[in-house]
Specification:
Strand order of the largest sheet: 1-2-3-4-5-6-8-7
Largest sheet: 8 strands, mixed
Shape: flat
Structural class: alpha/beta
Low-confidence stretches: 1-10, 622-681
Distance between the termini: 18 Å
Mean pLDDT: 86
């Protein structure tokens, strides 16, 4: 909303302060600056506030606002006096205001860094978390304007407001003066305030999803008057699933005397429905959607599923139509799934919602499925249906203009009905947030992701998101760092999901293989080796094996302490008459079920060939209710900490797992205690079956790697404090400010070698100096200064780090050798002015490596490591981790490249000093994490010797800090 012309001209309206937020109850509201145009809204708002709330605000009876009050509360300079309002449906429901004051409490301007703050929330909206959201936003505004502390006077009886301040997590002081509570809040974010903010975000966003998945009533807008069509199909599916709430059919073309459609009440508009409507499914042409949304908003509908197409997938006009749809829905406090969605399903017995176009509804189960594609959603539902798998929830978000995969990760994190989360994603609207949420969710239940549009280099139609510059392999590595199981195809996603939902996690990589086919056993054995597992020699039961033989062999394998999982291979067995029998799959399934149920909790997978009824019988569980399970290991904290920190930023209470049946209420703020697949004893009676050995083993290998991540992440890594003694953070910040200058170039600044060396040195990273050698005499003088032996190198961009082209001469022991090398270099490659040669003292022999850190617009800060030259440049043998990196990340980083054996004594060579290399990685990580202006660092080569290392080259690039979508106050994205 833009201000009127009379608004103070010297401070422009700060439209970047506008934000949509999700409140505690799952509804949305808009926060924006108050302008001079808001006088009538302010008066109307104040009239609806109770006398008690007015008394708490002004410390005296204050029945109405005077004209002077209205002017004061609507005229701001957006620097020393700022007012924000929360609006729903365009009307105020809350306000907050700060006024800058000096140390005596009098009105002041900068450099005064304290402000008095006051809130007022309509009584009807108290308890929705409105004041908490306002505090986050007004604090961010204040910090932007140079204010570091808030002061507030609160009456002792105003417990709600005192609690808002107390629970915010900021450092605060409290005193009692003149009959009121005086509060002072330090606005610098703390680990606690960030944890509080993210905890509130999780509960609010989870609740907003829950309102969509568990409505008490559903209206389908666009139900046809005759059978057929999208709306009528959704209505039929709702009725067929046995939805437990009320259902309504809406079509403005219904005759006035039509009372029902398919047995449910028929209405011409939402407004005609006398009862509340929680969810509306919109299936009308795009040009009629705004009218339907307005009707829903006026009627108090809580959420929308928009199946209508014709939005961002149709080009620029459709994108604007989509933005307007989101703005309109949010103005009424509604959230949207879609547009261009396929629908939603919730199989909870208390809900039984199928508001989708799914032709084959899935059975109830423990898998949550999110997809951005309707076509992929149909394929996944069909595949799961054929394999007898069940779902807890299904969401096809289409263009996901509002609700996204991040929202459902928030919901599934504490959903007791979901053990495994499967996501098909074509884009990541907020990659940093996705990584954070995925890491936290993966701590308690597996998250399996297929990423579409990996190599297109463009955003999928309808998705307005940052385009990543990093390779897809890097994205995959970063997902795995967060505990995400990244697979390549939807088939692999289903394969892994079935195993993770139905079987406990393996304790290690040791695999027992047994079956009645030697060849199939050998194929399984080879597949295990290819996936990095440790298979035991296959046990051949011969083709004469009976189901009882399978039962005995499986029981023996499960009881063996030398194996962590079992793969059973089966082909039709030969009966007494010598003919193959393929129709007794139920008998074999019963035998395997019996052995698995009686044995220790280890995962079992079956590979079968043409055994009728086996897969179906194996998928048939004794119960759809999760079996009781002992407590699992403590889950990892959500983010790394520095040594000595007591609360990891953003972690909140550490999530844990517990037995099924725990009754922690959703949204309570406590860690979820969902019985997770993978906890000891977490077998629900189903055994996954696969038609090929490779598919079964690949799913098992993903479970092994995920289980290993869970065990390692149970104790989070740390950034060692010993680094702090050699790191000058304030000095580095000052140096960066001076290098960028008061008006930095948005394109960035490439530092000169001496500047890069000084900057890195402030974080304990020493770069071996080079001296220019524009002619042979200068080269000799430089060598005399540095000391022989020396290296002579070209620094021309096209020859940098290209020893293979002859641009580097090493171990020059004296002046004669140096002059000869200089002449050869210029004769071969060109004039000194083109080559820009330099002289550098020789470093101890070792392994040449490269360390890089970059800021990707989509993924954030990424730390990379590889061997210098062909391994990383030609073969792509580079490992990546998100910043900030922990000590464990650094150790894993250097061990995860394929060429890592070179660092650890390959072919009898002496191992190099990997401890020094890990420390260097941690220093680089700290530098880019502490100073977001450092957008690129390249250390190449880094020669790692048996003792110590030497950084021979460094390139550093600075730029104004990029926007951080994962920090700051809570806000919904604007696509």
């Amino acid at each position: 909303m833009q201000p009127a012309p009379e608004q103070s001209p010297h401070h422009a309206y700060p439209d970047h302060w506008e934000a949509d937020v999700v409140l505690r109850d799952g509804g949305t509201a808009r926060i924006r600056p108050i302008t001079t145009d808001d006088a009538e809204r302010l008066v109307s708002f104040y009239e609806q506030v109770s006398d008690e709330s007015k008394y708490y605000r002004f410390f005296a009876p204050y029945p109405r606002l005077s004209d002077r009050d209205v002017h004061r509360f609507t005229h701001h300079d957006y620097v020393d006096r700022v007012g924000l309002a929360v609006t729903v449906g365009g009307e105020f429901i809350a306000t907050v205001r700060y006024d800058r004051i000096d140390e005596r409490g009098r009105p002041a301007s900068a450099p005064a860094d304290q402000a008095e703050v006051a809130f007022l929330v309509q009584d009807a909206h108290q308890g929705r978390g409105v004041a908490s959201a306002l505090l986050e936003h007004i604090a961010a505004v204040a910090r932007e304007r140079g204010i570091r502390r808030f002061a507030a006077e609160v009456l002792p009886a105003n417990n709600k407001m005192i609690k808002v301040f107390r629970d915010a997590g900021y450092t605060q002081q409290r005193s009692f003066e003149d009959g009121s509570v005086h509060l002072t809040l330090d606005l610098e974010p703390t680990a606690e305030s960030l944890a509080v903010q993210r905890g509130r975000e999780q509960r609010a966003e989870a609740r907003s999803v829950q309102r969509l998945l568990a409505p008490g009533s559903v209206a389908v807008i666009g139900v046809g008057r005759t059978p057929g069509g999208v709306g009528r199909t959704v209505l039929r599916n709702l009725l067929g699933a046995g939805f437990t709430g009320r259902t309504y059919a809406v079509n403005r073309s219904f005759p006035a005397d039509r009372a029902t459609v398919d047995g449910v009440p028929a209405h011409r508009s939402i407004g005609e429905i006398e009862e509340p409507v929680d969810l509306a499914v919109v299936a009308v042409p795009a040009d009629r959607v705004p009218e339907a949304v307005a009707d829903c908003g006026e009627h108090g509908v809580q959420g929308l599923v928009v199946l209508s197409a014709g939005y961002a997938e149709w080009g620029a006009e459709g994108r604007e139509r989509q933005r307007e749809l989101v703005r309109q829905a949010r103005s009424y406090g509604m959230r949207i799934i879609g547009p261009n969605a396929f629908g939603v399903i919730n199989n909870a017995e208390t809900v039984r919602l199928n508001a989708s176009l799914a032709p084959e509804p899935p059975a109830p189960g423990r898998i949550g499925l999110f997809t951005q594609s309707g076509a992929i959603g149909i394929a996944l539902l069909s595949g799961l249906y054929r394999r007898g798998a069940g779902l807890s929830t299904f969401i096809s978000a289409g263009n996901r203009a509002d609700i996204s995969g991040n929202d459902f990760l928030q919901y599934w994190y504490e959903d007791p009905d979901t053990d495994v989360a499967l996501l098909y994603l074509e884009s990541l609207g907020n990659p940093r947030k996705f990584t954070r949420l995925a890491r936290r969710t993966a701590a308690v239940k597996p998250v399996v992701v297929v990423k579409g549009a990996r190599h297109s280099g463009s955003t999928p139609p309808g998705h307005a998101v940052p385009v990543s510059r990093i390779p897809d392999a890097t994205v995959s590595a970063l997902m795995r760092q967060a505990g995400v199981i990244r697979v390549d195809t939807v088939t692999e996603m289903v394969d892994a999901g079935l195993l993770l939902a139905d079987q406990p996690l393996p304790a290690g990589p040791r695999v027992a293989i047994l079956g009645n086919s030697e060849s199939l056993g050998l194929l399984t054995y080879d597949a295990c080796l290819a996936e990095g597992l440790r298979p035991r020699p296959p046990l051949d039961l011969t083709t004469a094996a009976t189901p009882q033989d399978f039962r005995n062999a499986l029981a023996e394998a499960l009881a063996d302490d030398g194996c962590d999982s079992v793969v059973v291979t089966a082909i039709p067995w030969v009966g007494e008459d010598g003919e193959a029998e393929s129709g007794d799959g139920e008998v074999l399934a019963a035998a395997l079920h019996t052995a698995a149920a009686a044995g220790p909790a280890k995962p079992v997978a079956v590979v079968h060939v043409e055994i009728g009824g086996l897969a179906e019988a194996l998928a048939a569980a004794t119960s759809t209710v999760a079996q009781p399970r002992p407590p699992a290991q403590p889950a990892p904290a959500a983010s790394p900490t520095r040594t000595g920190a007591t609360t990891p930023p953003g972690s909140g209470p550490a999530p844990t797992t517990a037995v099924a049946g725990d009754t922690t209420p959703p949204g309570s703020g406590q860690a979820p205690t969902t019985a997770v697949a993978g906890a000891p004893g977490a077998r629900n009676g189903r055994i996954p079956a696969y038609p090929a050995a490779e598919r079964a083993v690949r799913a098992l290998a993903e479970a092994v790697r995920y289980a290993q991540w869970r065990r390692q992440a149970a104790v989070p890594g740390k950034v060692p404090e010993f680094l702090d003694d050699t790191i000058d953070e304030p000095g580095t910040a000052g140096l960066i400010d001076s290098l960028l200058g008061p008006d930095p170039d948005p394109r960035g600044l490439q530092l000169a070698p001496d500047q890069a060396r000084e900057l890195l040195g402030r974080y304990g990273i020493t770069v071996r100096p080079t001296l220019p050698a524009p002619d042979p005499d200068a080269a000799v003088a430089a060598a005399a200064r540095l000391g022989y032996p020396v290296a002579l190198k070209t620094t021309a961009p096209h020859l940098r780090h290209r020893a293979d082209l002859g641009g580097v001469r090493l171990d020059l022991a004296n002046e004669t050798a140096l002059r000869r090398a200089y002449g050869e270099l210029t004769d071969l490659l060109g004039k000194p002015a083109e080559l820009q040669p330099v002289v550098q003292a020789m470093a101890p022999r070792g392994v040449d490596t490269v360390v890089r850190a970059t800021i990707d617009p989509a993924a954030g800060a990424v730390l990379s490591f590889g061997l210098a030259g062909a391994p990383s440049e030609l073969l792509g043998d580079t490992a990546h981790r998100l910043v900030p990196a922990t000590d464990r990340d650094a150790a894993e980083l250097i061990r995860s490249i394929r060429a890592a054996p070179v660092l650890f004594g390959w072919r009898g060579a002496a191992p190099v000093d990997t401890a020094s290399l890990e420390e260097l990685l941690l220093r680089v990580s700290r530098l880019v994490d502490d100073h977001p202006e450092v957008v690129s660092i390249a250390l190449e080569p880094v020669v790692v010797a048996t003792q110590g290392l030497t950084v021979l080259g460094a390139a550093v690039r600075l730029s104004p800090p990029p926007a951080r979508t994962d920090l700051g106050p809570r806000r919904l994205p604007n696509y």
